[in-house]
Design a protein that fits this description.
5-stranded parallel β-sheet; 15% strand; ATP binding; Rossmann fold; hydrolase; RecBCD enzyme subunit RecD; alpha/beta; binds adenosine-5'-triphosphate; Arc Repressor Mutant, subunit A
């Protein structure tokens, strides 16, 4: 059957406003259901299209109010025409008539009726009559799994035994570095009381420090009670993030002061290894199913997930299904960072009220008894206790003081300003001006005409020069001189961490693809580039930095891992030198891989901000495109800024784009609700 709507959908797809998948879904329903209402087909195409943009569901009311936010209009041909056609369809409907049509259709199950979970229609209508949300069934199920599993855990509040107070005092020695109250201590108690907890905070606020002390507290309590230690697993969404947490974890463990006769046993009970979520759950080739699921749960009493902002709904649902019902879960992450690449913004959704606290009197008393501290906002001194809290609020802690940026305060100040949401370009400029007065300047702004601007190319070629120089000076020695070759590669990694160019986009002149080409040519015009980078840009050359774009379990390389192509000495005299890609390896120091074995890698002279999550560089330069795009949000800018440990350079040609970006937040539709007391108690 062919309806005018399907013809429109086809033309929208051809213009780039809709994916082929979205059209195919609407066509499939049109074939299956006779007669079929156009408003159902439109809803089906839109729910699929929105899911491609990271939304878990389609908010029908928002659709009718803001049709301009639907479809990929900014990158489509004839966007005005498509917008007009879409608006004509939507103008002919009211929310009530649309909902009624959907409810009447055999393609839609209503979650407002009992038994939706047992039914099989491809779409599910949920939310509330006032705010109806339409889901692809799979995503509704993910969200239900998450909501129910978290609700179950939030119901269980543990009262900590009296000895907890002494342990907390030992684990959190008084320092005068942090403003009062000590939110790390408060976060530790909040998380120790609940079977599900969130510790959120910006870069360097001490999430890892806190969680290591929290784990020490929990194991210390087991020890004093003479009970078996908890089985604890630590995981992160990408290999890169797991490696960073691992490094930080080991440092924290070393610094941990565990007094008493049994301190060795106590220390040995703390986990030392961080894995990726995929590995933890046991991913299997050719299927989305993990080895660990409800019928084969993980052998863990407690799982801690770092960089939780990168976890999408599917992964979170799989993780919760793989936990035993009595297993505890702690999420760590920065709520203000970009949401996951795939659908969902779980950490952001769950931390919507983190700043305001909403702690109950019961929580307040427990905090005071165990820490002697009150939950206050250190900036204003305002109490964060009220009677509006849900169980989720009682299990959420926000760390508010960054220890990382004390030497380079400009980065912290800029990140904070971007987060505030109301910052205009005037305030933005002031932070740069204030930073310029400091002896250790950490913020730079580079205004450029286009991506071939000499100042821009100079910034990048100078940024990459130190590691390229080292790539060109391989130690003298034979092919099997592993020691010196590994030491050389490790030093190359260190130098490579000094600088990274970030961009918002993948495609186009301002995206990773275009910038990589531009930068290759620019680097080739430098002395070191001429020495290393061949003309005509072959696939592999010494110095090529590559990013894994998928997990490769055979090679034990994970999505997000960065490797560098290096030239090794020939195996035999008279043979040509060999190219190998070196990746940092937490155990062996360096892993050498044959370039031909790497299937899913891309050159990473320029990296998207999305891919940079979980990484940190001494100096990052973020280049903004000259035209606006829905992808340009405050979260993107914040994530880009906070990837830098010492220096941040913003590169832009149009300040108009910056202004738009400062006011645009990621807003992903989802029905996850644990904030309202009713939702939480559900
Ligand atoms: N209470 C504290 N007193 C003094 N220094 C601290 C404290 N907490 C953390 N730090 C220091 O601050 C730095 C950042 O701490 P940590 O790595 O725990 O933060 P994080 O929030 O996990 O960082 P990331 O942004 O990498 O996730 C470390 O050098 C750590 O030693």
């Amino acid at each position: 059957m062919k309806t005018p709507l399907l013809e429109h959908l086809q033309s929208w797809m051809e213009a780039g406003a809709l994916r082929a998948l979205d059209l195919a879904f609407a066509r499939f329903l049109a074939q299956q259901i006779q007669p079929v209402e156009e408003s159902l087909l439109l809803a089906a195409a839109l729910v699929s299209e929105r899911q491609g943009h990271g939304h878990v569901c389609l908010d029908l009311k928002a659709c009718l109010q803001h049709p301009e936010q639907l479809l990929s209009l900014t990158r489509a041909q004839h966007p005005e025409e498509i917008h007009r056609q879409l608006s004509e369809y939507l103008d002919n409907m009211t929310l009530d008539t649309w909902v009624q049509t959907l409810q009447a259709s055999e393609a839609v199950d209503s979650a407002w009726q009992p038994g939706a979970a047992e039914q099989t229609a491809p779409l599910v209508l949920a939310g509330s009559p006032d705010q109806p949300l339409l889901y692809l069934r799979r995503y509704w199920q993910y969200e239900q799994t998450i909501q129910q599993a978290l609700q179950q855990r939030l119901k269980r509040v543990r009262s900590l035994p009296p000895e907890a107070k002494r342990l907390i005092q030992q684990l959190f020695p008084e320092t005068n570095q942090a403003p009062r109250p000590d939110w790390q201590k408060l976060a530790c108690v909040l998380a120790a009381r609940s079977d599900f907890a969130i510790i959120t905070g910006g870069p360097g606020t001490g999430k890892t420090t806190t969680v290591v002390r929290l784990l020490a507290l929990l194991q210390g309590l087991q020890l004093t009670r003479g009970e078996a230690f908890l089985q604890i697993k630590l995981a992160a969404p990408t290999g890169k993030a797991a490696a960073r947490l691992n490094e930080s974890l080991l440092k924290n463990l070393q610094a941990l002061n565990l007094p008493g006769e049994q301190s060795d046993v106590w220390r040995a009970s703390l986990p030392r290894e961080v894995t990726t979520l995929h590995r933890l759950l046991g991913s299997q080739p050719g299927t989305r199913q993990f080895r660990h699921q409800a019928s084969n749960p993980l052998a863990a009493d407690l799982v801690v997930v770092d960089e939780a902002s990168m976890v999408d709904v599917e992964m979170m649902a799989c993780l919760l299904q793989a936990l035993r019902p009595d297993a505890r879960l702690i999420l760590l992450g920065d709520k203000d960072q970009l949401a996951s690449v795939e659908a969902g913004s779980i950490l952001g959704d769950l931390c919507r009220d983190a700043e305001a606290g909403h702690y109950s009197q019961t929580t307040r008393q427990a905090l005071y008894q165990l820490t002697g501290e009150e939950p206050l906002d250190p900036a204003t001194g305002k109490s964060l206790v009220d009677d509006q809290g849900s169980p989720l609020h009682q299990a959420t802690a926000m760390l508010r003081h960054s220890f990382r940026f004390s030497q380079y305060p400009g980065i912290g100040e800029l990140a904070q300003l971007v987060n505030q949401g109301s910052a205009g370009s005037g305030a933005f400029k002031q932070v740069f001006e204030k930073d310029a007065q400091r002896s250790e300047k950490s913020l730079h702004f580079l205004s450029i005409r286009d991506q071939k601007d000499p100042d821009f190319l100079k910034l990048v070629t100078q940024g990459y020069r130190p590691y390229l120089e080292l790539v060109a000076s391989r130690p003298a020695g034979a092919f099997d001189d592993h020691l010196s070759l590994n030491a050389w590669a490790s030093e190359v990694f260190k130098r490579h961490q000094k600088f990274q160019l970030l961009t918002a986009l993948r495609q186009g002149d301002w995206g990773v693809e275009g910038l990589n080409q531009t930068l290759y040519q620019a680097l080739r015009s430098t002395a070191i580039g001429r020495q290393l980078l061949p003309e005509g840009e072959p696939l592999w050359y010494p110095g090529r930095p590559v990013l894994m774009t998928r997990n490769d379990y055979g090679l034990q390389l994970m999505n997000g891992d960065i490797g560098i192509c290096l030239e090794l000495p020939a195996e035999q005299p008279g043979q040509p030198p060999l190219l190998r890609v070196a990746f940092p390896d937490p155990n062996k120091g360096v892993r050498w891989v044959l370039p031909s074995r790497l299937q899913d890698v891309e050159t990473v002279f320029a990296m998207t901000v999305h891919k940079s999550q979980g990484s940190e560089f001494q100096h990052t330069a973020l280049v903004l495109p000259p035209v606006s795009s829905p992808i340009l949000t405050k979260e993107l800018l914040y994530t880009g800024i906070t990837r830098s440990s010492q220096t941040f350079t913003l590169v832009a040609s149009e300040t108009r784009v910056l202004n738009q970006l400062l006011h645009k937040r990621i807003d992903r539709a989802s029905g996850l609700d644990l904030q309202t007391p009713a939702g939480a108690n559900g």
